[in-house]
Amino acid sequence: MLDTNHTNNFSPGTCITLAFLMTLLAFAIILGNAAVILAFVMDSKLRQRSSYFLLNLAISDFFVGAISIPLYIPYTLFNWDLRDELCTFWLLIDYLLCTASVYNIVLISYDRYQSVSNAVSYRAKQTEILKIVAPMVAVWVLAFLVHGPIILVSQSWKKDWKECEPGFFSVWYIIAITSFFEFLVPVILVAYFNVYIYRSLWKRGSLSRRQSHPPASSNDCGHSFKCRLFSRTSLPELEETGPPLRSEKQRRKGSLLLSLRTQINTQTIASQMLSLSRSDSVTHQRERLELLRAKKLAKSLAILLGVFAICWAPYSVSTIFLSYKNPKPYWYEIAFWLQWLNSFVNPFLYPLCHKRFQKAFLKIFCMKKKATSSHSPSVSS
């Protein structure tokens, strides 16, 4: 992606200011993603399927701030010449990291889609290491295949090495193909996962509302489970044809026995009705919690899709129309930097909003705070 003009018309003061801001952005990207990696390493409770994919995203974004931007600053602001092997290495690493970051976002979205659509099979995959590692490796392989071979081949087409940019930048249809796999396909996939989750939420919400508000006909004793329960546990009728009681003592004994049986049946019915109401309330509470959790996932996917489109759409569209224009306009440079800004935003959209990672960050912070307080000298009175 290092495709800007090698020379610039900035004053020395402007170059220093821009270099400071770019360095600050690179440091923020490194710090945010390093915190995610550190939390994953130190807290064993994060060793779950979704957390591994967040770790993979943090690794790709971390090296964007550690390699891509630091090499870009002296090249674009201070006319640092990059030739042959170093330029090719720079291009390969930058394209690989940025594309891997995009594909990791798709993988995380797909993982959330699986947690909603196939919850039972998703839980079974939590402990299968092969099914966790294989998608992570596939992300890096696909990211390299999108740009790596064409960069290596097109570098032999270049006759002028004054600018460090891919040789295929003069061929618009190659740019269109790479932009299709780098931007359009990920946007379509993430949008599909998002729409599916929203549809699933809508269906669950309507079903939950129907269960919480049953129709009036269900109160009929002939169709009600509770009425059937009462009829089964109610006291049987007395036999009118039975033999008469022989004495007053027997009548009193029968009356006492009748009242005792009535009280026992009443208590049995009450306990069974109470257990039914408790089970119904627990079921509805579980449904509400599951619906709330899925809604949060859907909202995060919507934010994810919007931020991803804002950061990647301007560059992907403009590269096709400006492939022959040299030097590139300044607004194209802004669109170019938006991609790296996505690597800064990703830790806040994913791990830092994840409850497990928040607990891990607090745990690490408390450990550091305790260690600092234990090493501090005590003040004697």
TrEMBL record:
Molecular function as annotated in GO: G protein-coupled acetylcholine receptor activity; G protein-coupled serotonin receptor activity; histamine receptor activity
> Where is the chain membrane-spanning?
20-41, 53-77, 89-108, 129-152, 172-197, 301-322, 334-353
InterPro entries assigned: GPCR_Rhodpsn, GPCR_Rhodpsn_7TM, Histamine_H4_rcpt
Keywords, sorted A to Z? Cell membrane, G-protein coupled receptor, Membrane, Receptor, Transducer, Transmembrane, Transmembrane helix
How does it sit in the bilayer?
Multi-pass membrane protein
Q: Which GO terms describe its biological process?
A: adenylate cyclase-inhibiting G protein-coupled acetylcholine receptor signaling pathway; G protein-coupled receptor signaling pathway, coupled to cyclic nucleotide second messenger; inflammatory response; positive regulation of cytosolic calcium ion concentration; regulation of MAPK cascade
Give the UniProt subcellular location, in the record's own words: Cell membrane
A Pfam family assignment:
7tm_1
| Gene3D superfamilies listed in its UniProt record | Rhodopsin 7-helix transmembrane proteins (1.20.1070.10)
Query: Principal localization?
Result: membrane
Q: Which GO terms describe its cellular component?
A: dendrite; plasma membrane; synapse
| Ranges for domain G-protein coupled receptors family 1 profile | 32-350
Q: Which family does it belong to?
A: Belongs to the G-protein coupled receptor 1 family.
The name of this protein is Histamine receptor H4
Provenance organism: Loxodonta africana (African elephant)
List the gene name.
HRH4
